[in-house]
Structure formats: structure tokens, C-alpha cells
Amino acid sequence: QYVSDFAWSSATSAYQIEGGWNADGKGESIWDNFTHAGRSHNNETGDDACLSYYKYKDDVQLLRNLSVGYYRFSLSWPRIIPTGEINDGINQPGVDYYNNLIDELLANNIQPMVTLYHWDLPQALQDKYEGWLDQSGIIVKAFADYTDFCFKTYGDRVKFWITFNEPFITAQLGYGVAAFAPGHYSPGEGVYYAAHSIIKSHAQAYHIYNNTYRESQKGQIGITLNSNWADPMTRTDLEHVEASQRNLAFATGWFADPIFGTGDYPDIMRYNVSTFYLFPKLSKAEKLLNKGTSDFFGLNHYTSHLWLSSASTWLYQVPWGIRKLLIWIKRTYGDPVIYITENGISEHFSDGLDDDIRVNYYKNYINEVLKAIKEDDVNVKGYTAWSLMDNFEWAEGYSERFGLHWVNFTDPERTRIPKKSASYYRSLAGNHEFKSPRERDEFHYGTF
Ligand code: PNW
């Protein structure tokens, strides 16, 4: 009675941990530009962050001590290709940094799970083409060339690729309300065009891998979507049930329907949006290109609407929400393989090593994942704790800590210390599989 081959993992992203923002020929990213303009909390930046550009070997030892078999990290596009366009040249020291990290992981028996785009677009692509707003095809081509280079360079050792992390957040926060880089304000219209070129870019990268590299490299490639569970206030009132469905379609279906479903945007979204704004169309050929372009459903899940809170204004603790969401994904998208690529909770900057809140969060959420696997037959193959260590939390700067390891940001060495949650997580991952006994189902899952 256990789930074997379960992938236990922990995650970070390049801009949030690396530092070395202009080291050894790295190009500027939209997050360098955004934070240097003072647009994050307290004028904080990722210029140094956790200094993982220099301390990656220490990070690998943290992972080893957690007993995880996988590490999810991201590649910084401008560290590899400074202007974003491959014809302008690559940056060899940046390429080597990831070669070294990957080799160090494998030498320690940890498999890399590599995200190709975790929000740090080369600034030059934003300046020249308006980044993801570009509809001419240039941005899609630039991303395709970059991913092709990565498959060619790292694919002999990397067997798990994620094209985009949370395109919803890029579109809405980056090009909608301007809370994230590049800080472009265009809610209601720009957001749909940004999403449009991201979906096309994802599909291109998938096909490049599929056609050119899959056979020899034998890896898998997919996308990671963020999704909150939207619980209807009552199940007996159709209006509330429909509101919940609408929320899931706008937040998750926006990307999941094109990639895991019909190839096209959800109808309900097109009808609602096109009443007020221009809503981009996917041609018949594009729909075919989108459909089925992910070997797994990468899921980042933190919260549901709306219960116990945390240090992040948007994050409420609702363990059973993850189980309902997993069941919804299974039913809506034809029972895909699911990897949970992020789950976790924040504390305040002043909080320390006794992170009981995080221990409880992981205990309760992972227990619900276990129920989804055992009771509901959801095909979950892996679980990833966000984050390996405290890091630069985007617009919130260093004010929120998500780490299993505590980082001393006033120490030039950025010392990392395991929190209570690190030993708790180790106790789960160290078994390499789920062995806990079944728990009885206390909820009723009949209505969606
Ligand atoms: C995700 N929201 O971001 C990202 O993938 C991580 O880089 C990040 O550190 C982590 O979750 C914790 O925030 C999100 O406002 C950022 O709803 C903001 C939101 C959701 C996810």
C-alpha cells in the first residue's frame, strides 16, 4: 500500500536565488530593470539574493540533506543569451554555470527538473519588441532558439523540462496590473496578447523537443500552471457553482484548455472577454499545434478562496483545496500525469527556525495529496516544496520567507540553516515513497 517511484523535489528559480546579476557577461533581465527602478518592496533587488551563482555546491548539499531525488530550478535566459537573441551570441560562463550545477546534482544522485522560463526575460527583448506583447512572431522565434540551444546543450543530462512557470502570473501581474516586471499596464487587453504568445512559444518548444530531441534524449517536457481552488460558497445554488467554474476557466483553463484540452481558449472566457475587449483568436492550425503539448500537468498550488491566512496577502491555508483541485484536473483534462511543481507557505522576515506553521502546512497538504492518489486515483507522480531556501520574493522583496532553509541575508556568506520544516520534509522524502496509512475521507466530492 504505497506509491512507488514518487518524485520528491524542492524548488527555486534563477532570479530569486542566484545573485551575480551582471557577473561574467550576463545580460540584464526585466527583473533587474524593474528592481533597479525601485519597484519592489523597500527597493530590494535580486542583485545578490542567496548568491547561489557562487554557492551552488552548498545548495546541492542542502538538497542531499533533504533526501530529495529531484531539484526544480530555472535557467536565466539572459545569463545564457545576454540579449535574448541567439544570433547576437551566447555567454559561455553562463552556459558553464548550469553545466556545473547539473553535473554537481547528478554526482549527488539528484535529478534536475529544469524550468526554461521563470519570469526573467532578457530586457533587450522587452525594449525592442515589447516582450510577450509582441504578436509578430519574433518573440516566439527567440524563445524557440533559446530552448533549442538548452535541449542541445543540457539535454544529455536533463530529462525533465518545464517550458513556462505560471504564465498566468506573467500575463496578469507583468502585463496587466504592472505589479511584476516588466511593469506594463494593460489589464483586460494586453494580458490576453501576452498569454497568446506564451502559449505559442510553449507549443514551439514542445515540438522542437518532440521532433528533434525526444528520441535520443528520452526526457519529458511540459508546462507548469498555477491554480487556486475556487470553492463554491454553496453547492445547492447553481449561481455559486457556476461562479466557481468560471473562476477555474479564467485562471487555469485559459492555458490548460489550449494545451491539455481542445487546443483553444475556454468558450466561457472568449464570450465574456470579447464583449468588452479584443480577444485574440487561435487559428485552426494553431489549435492543432497547441493540443496535447505537455507530457504532464505541472501544478503550482498554494491556496484556495478563502480561509486561514499567512504572511502573503494572497495565501490562505486550505489543505483540502488541493485535493479538490487535483480531482478537478483529472476530470477536466482526461486524467493527465500530474507533478506538483510548487506548494508551500510564507512567514515574515523576522520569523526563524521554529516554523511550525510550515510543518503543519506541509503535513496537511501532503496528506490531502495522498488522499487524492489513494482514494481518488489521481495520477500524481511528484511533489515539490517551494522553496529550498528563503529567497527574493519578487515584488515583496525579502519580506516573506518561503524556505525550508533559513537564509541570513545580512551575512555576506548568506549562511543557510535548516528549519524545523526541513527535517519534517526529509522524514517524508527520505522514505522515497508514500507509506502512510489511508485516512478516511471527511468531505463529499460529488459536485463540481
Ligand atoms: C509563485 N499571487 O509565484 C512562483 O512560481 C514563485 O517564484 C514564488 O516565489 C512562489 O509562487 C511564492 O509566491 C506566485 O500573487 C506569486 O497569487 C504570486 C502569486 C502566486 C504565485
Automatic annotation (TrEMBL):
<keyword id="KW-0326">Glycosidase</keyword>
<protein>
    <recommendedName>
        <fullName>beta-glucosidase</fullName>
        <ecNumber>3.2.1.21</ecNumber>
    </recommendedName>
</protein>
<keyword id="KW-0378">Hydrolase</keyword>
<feature type="active site" description="Nucleophile">
    <location>
        <position position="342"/>
    </location>
</feature>
<dbReference type="GO" id="GO:0004553">
    <property type="term" value="F:hydrolase activity, hydrolyzing O-glycosyl compounds"/>
</dbReference>
<dbReference type="GO" id="GO:0005975">
    <property type="term" value="P:carbohydrate metabolic process"/>
</dbReference>
<keyword id="KW-0325">Glycoprotein</keyword>
<comment type="subunit">
    <text>Homodimer.</text>
</comment>
<comment type="similarity">
    <text>Belongs to the glycosyl hydrolase 1 family.</text>
</comment>
